[in-house]
Amino acid sequence: MRTGHLTTAAAFCVLAIALGGAANAADITEESVRAALPRLDEIVTDVLERTAVPGIAVGVVYGDKVLYAKGFGVRRVGSGEAVDADTIFQIASVSKPLASTVVAAVVGEGGITWDSRITNLDPDFRMYDPWVSTQVTLRDAFCHRTGMPGQAGDLLEDLGFDRDTILHQFRYLRPDSSFRSHYAYTNFMLTEAGVAAARSVGTDWEDLITSRLFEPLGMTRSSPRQADFYAADNRAALHFIEDGVATTRFERRPDAQSPAGGVSSTVNDMTKWLVLQLNEGKYQGSQVVDAAALAETHAPQITRGVDPSGRGSFYGLGWNVDYGPDGEIRLTHAGAFFVGARTQVALLPLHRLGIVTLANAFPSGAPEAINAAFLDIALKGEPSEDYLPRYEERFRSLIPARTYPEPSDPAPAMAAAAYAGRYANDYYGAADVVVEGEGDLVLLLGPDQRRFPLRHHDRDAFLFEFLGLGDEGEHTALASFASADGAMANALTIDFLDQTGQGTFTRAGAN
Questions:
Q1: C-alpha closest to that of 371 among 352, 356, 390
Q2: % helix, strand, coil for the chain, step of 5
Q3: Cα separation values, 203 from 39, 59, 121, 258, 301, Å
Q4: Do 53 and 241 meet the contact criterion of CB atoms below 8 Å apart?
Q5: Residue 365 — left, alpha, or beta (φ > 0 → left; ψ -120 to 50 → alpha)?
Q6: Is 60 helix (H, G, I), strand (E, B) or coil?
Q7: Which residues of the chain have pLDDT under 50?
């Protein structure tokens, strides 16, 4: 279904940055926000009519008040089951600012700091460079400046490895930049930071986010566990949009990266969290999260580049941090499961205004278009533009077509037995190639040795249909064998696993 995790991460940055210049500063009051809310109904209805997204839920907070929480459309296409403010959505990477809120709660208790070294909290964790292993901090991981390749670990999740294995395998993944030199969006480094923070207080991540955030705020329909989402009533199914039609082709089970992308929630619950964000860690008069520790999550930590107007754009701790034309800070984060979910949250802290939009389909720019238009109306009375076409096109472009043209004169393959055997890769584990039937080759990948029948393409190149268990979706992939003597394959390279140059498997026992 898709390729190019690094390109994808960069594209999300551009989309988040674009919201930063949507409107000029203005005096905002509770009355002016309330006056804008009927327009929000119109905006969402228009988005549903102009896209294939089945369902959307939106929440708006001003100060310490929830002014709006409403659902539109349906939970599952064709079902007639309406989305409401209690419909549970998988929120994908909007989990990250939730995670930084939770770690801020622990930091505020004084046992750790944002600059605590991860290996001091989780001594078994290792990275490729021993020195970096000893130096990397919670702050580094939460602002994506560890030197790891963008989206590091995601493809291990697609192969079916669990969280512990993925984090263990980071010791074999080569960095693609110097430590702390640049921003590269990395789900599983942030996940490791969340795990390490939980271990510092003698618990696991799932219990930590529940006890430090969901329970104090009464977020009773939120969970960090995929089992809770799939067992729940009133939940939104994932939809993949293709040729203008939304279908429920996939499920997403994100427990492995729960701190970075595994939370499910509702707009009724998410607006409670927005209240906490806009009120310096307070909720209903109680200081749930230390104000100083939370404020640090909103501060720029590393540059992501520049926005379309040429202003600098930054990442904080689990937040995109941008500035409007008047210098006003804007905090945003988007979330997406490429197999069928879209979310975005946007805060204007100086105006004490926040909006969250949850949608049950991908690719779509619906959340960005809705949030940008509403913030424009709240700030200056009218949207600066019709945002939907711009965002829709940008998200559609994130799914490039992967094609393998048929060779005009394909060379024959070697005998099937020449390819059979076990191939080893430090990072991805073993890949087995077996012969079945009358010379049919099958590739076995991942911890469960999932079967992928190979079909000959040209000489030592074969194609197969890959269905990821993470967010890779379904697409054709290329398996290319190498033979030193022309009689026996001694290496295998899988193209989509080779994005950082580590997708080659060597025949076990080969010199």
A1: 356
A2: 35, 25, 40
A3: 45, 32, 12, 15, 28
A4: yes
A5: alpha
A6: strand
A7: 1-25, 511
Question: Is residue 132 a contact partner of residue 146, using CB atoms and an 8 Å limit?
Answer: yes
Helix or strand (DSSP H, E) at 449: none
- For 233-280, the pLDDT digits (tens) are 999 999 999 999 999 999 999 999 999 999 999 999 999 999 999 999
Cα separation, 58 vs 309, in Å, equals 28
- The rounded Cα 496 to chain-centroid distance in angstroms is 18
This prediction has a pTM of 0.93
Closest CA to 141 of 168, 169, 119, 164: 119
300-339 pLDDT tens trace = 999 998 877 788 899 999 999 999 877 889 999 999 999 9
What value does the CA radius of gyration of the chain take, rounded to a whole number of Å? 23
| Strand 302-306 relative to strand 450-453, pairing | unpaired
pLDDT of residue 509: 76
Give the pLDDT score at 511: 47
Is there a cis peptide before residue 363, judged by omega within 30 degrees of 0? yes
Residue 85 CA, chain-centre distance (Å), reads 23
CA distance 420 to 267: 52
